[in-house]
Every structure is written in structure tokens, then in C-alpha cells.
Amino acid sequence: MRLFPREESFLPQFRKASDVLVEAAKALEDLSASFDDIEVKVARIKHLEHEGDQVAHQTFGLLSSTW
Question: pTM here?
């Protein structure tokens, strides 16, 4: 019996989360650098926010099922 479960799918989840975060930061930087196409840029940021929420939800589900 292990004290800590060996679950290796956390690292890809953390990688997905960091990738989305980096993309969102770039999108926000792009918006703050230039205010043209604001609607498109804001839509991209909102999409990335929802994508990040999905990754977080999946990660919490994995944590819950692992522990």
C-alpha cells in the first residue's frame, strides 16, 4: 500500500494550465499594447479564460478521484 498514489497525469494537466496562462498573458499584452480590434481581442481572452477553467476543473476532478 502506498501512502501517496502515483498518478502521472498531473504533469500534463499542469502543462496545459501553464500553456493557457501564457497564451492569456500574451493576449492581454496584445490588448494593452494596441486598442484596435478590441472585440476580437476580448473574445480571445474570454475563450482562454474558459479553457483555463476547463483545465482546472479536469485537474480538480483528477485530484478528487486520485485521493
Answer: 0.80
